[in-house]
Structure formats: structure tokens, C-alpha cells
Amino acid sequence: MDQLENIAAYRLEVPLTKPYRLAFGAVERYDSIIVAATDREGRSGLGEATVLTGYTDETIDDAWRVAREFAASVVREPREARLSLVLRLATTHPFTATAFGTALEMLDAPDRPRAPAATVPLVGLLDAKGEEAIAAQLEKLLTAGYRTIKIKVGFDVRADGEFVRAVQRAGRGRARIRVDANQGYTGEQGMAFVRSLDPEAIELFEQPCAAGDWDAHLSVARAATVPLMLDESIYSMADVEKAAALRCAQFIKVKLMKFVTQESLAAAIGRIRALGMTPVLGNGVACDLGCWLEALVAAEHIDNAGEMNGFLKTGAALLDRPLVFESGAIQLEHGYLPGVNMEQLKRYCVDSVQVSGNAPTTAVA
Description:
Radius of gyration: 20 Å
Order of helices and strands: EEEHHHEEHEHEHEHEHEHHEHEEHEE
CATH topology of the largest domain: TIM Barrel
CATH architecture of the largest domain: Alpha-Beta Barrel
Structural class: alpha/beta
Helix content: 25-40%
Strand order of the largest sheet: 5-6-7-8-9-10-11
Number of domains: 2
Strand content: 25-35%
């Protein structure tokens, strides 16, 4: 049907089982917005935006204000106008726009995005400190089925280098290692860090410097003996094209929350390959809905370990059927079309809005 029956948006605070330590601060909860769009036939589409300032310029307070306003305006628009409004919103609020874009895409697509039967391998996060603890955690990750390990640096060049070497000693080549600085270094620090690295088993080094400091990334890339990947620097296809033109990255990481719809995300992945770079997909800071949506794209378009592991950092399953995780991978259930576990949603909801017809009504959980 062309006309929407209603749009509901929920602001959630979802606690993590333990803090997620990044170069720009520890994350203790997800600030998420879930959007549910329903048509006159009772069909629903779902979308998620988990807003982490640093990954995006958006803040949760501003994103929630915008989401409430956008829900009230878009619900009365015809189908042909809705996508253009979402894309306009994405120019200033890409994460917020993605919650609406994926919900409407799921609802409006002629062939709704039911899951294939597929295995999507994930990266395993190693954050232990000290030689013995690192070795013990790595063995646990390998036993769980992970074959690509991710570690966080960007704190102190010397200590970070020692950490990488400890992981390499423990791994003994049994797993690929992704090293992520989350913008933590200056150009000089990034160059010093990569010069200290032994490339053994290192798959890539991710986002050494501030997102907009392309000169710094280029200097690190020229000094590096390991491939570089850009993440926070990539918000649009223009950024992908720039990375290719500068030759400052061999890998490009993409996230659904930057590309608004699954269709646009898949197109970006194709363009990255056409430009001679390797795409990596996944958001480590997202609930299970966002991870499921990315896993669908990964199953068809990605041939390396996914980073859509944010759902493993919470004790919360927002989907009506929890994601199946076995042997280091998401196991997509054939034919599954997602629904929301309303009991869980209400548990973490701090504000909500439902818009139908003329005026929004707000309920605080």
C-alpha cells in the first residue's frame, strides 16, 4: 500500500555487559533509536540507529529530536516522496536517517529482505592485558571459532606496540589480526606505530588518525608495511572515491548506518571493489536488529570477517527471535523476517513516539 498507517520510534538505553574501550572513551551503553513503520495492510519495516558521537557527528539528544520531527512529517507522505526525504535527512543526520531508511526499505521492497540460510563469520574482540591473560583470551576466541581477531590501540604508541606483539606471540599465525586505532594517533604517532610493527599475521591497520585528516592518513600509509583501512573517514561515496584517488587505504570499512539503506550499502561495496580496494562491513556498536540487517548484506557481498558484532556486547535481544551465534559466526535463519520483542523494547525504552494521522502521541517507558 502507498500510505503508511503509522510510524513508531523508540529511544533506548541498552547497557553493555562490560565497557567497550575505545581510544576516544569507554562505551557503557548503546543509545539507540528503533523505528517501526506499518502500512495499511499491517506489514511492518524496522530500522535502527545507534548513535555514538565519535563514530558520527550526531548526538543522541539531537538525533532523537530529529527522529521525532521526521516521523511526524514523513508518515503523511506518499511512497514516492519518502525516500527522497530520507536521503535529504541523511545529508545532516546519516545515522538517524538509516533507522527510517531501512524501515521503509523493508516495508516497500517488492521482495522483502527475508534472510537466506547463510553463515557470516565475525571478528572476535581481544581486550585482555598482560601476556598470560592475552594468551588465555586468544585461545578462548580460537576455540569459539574465530579466525580473525580485532584489537584496539590508539592510546600510547609504545604500549600499543607491545600489546600487538604480545597478541602475535600468542596467536602464532593461527588467526588474522585487525588493529584499530579509532582515530587515536596524530600523523607522527601513526607513522611511529606502523614502523614498529612486524607485519606477521596483521590483516590491516584501521583508522590511525582523525577522520578529516587525510594528510595524516596518507603519511601513515606511506610509512606502513601493513595495509591500512579507513572507517570513520568514510561517510559517503565521495569519501570512498577520495581514498582511492589518494591511495591511502587498501581496505574500506562501511556500515549500514552511514549508507541509509541496504541497497545503497551494497552499491558502495561494489564501487569499493571496482576502485581496487577491499570492502569490510560491520558495526561493532549496534543492537541485534542493525547487526542482522548488515549480516544480510554481508552474506551476499562480503568475503572476509564481518564486524557486525555489537549484539554480542549486550545482554539484550530486541528481535523476536535472537540472532544465532555459533562457531564464531552469525547463522542466518532461512526465511526469517524480523519482528520486535516488545517486552525487551519496553525494558530499555526511555522515550517513544507513535504517529498516525494528525498528531503524535508520546509515551515514556
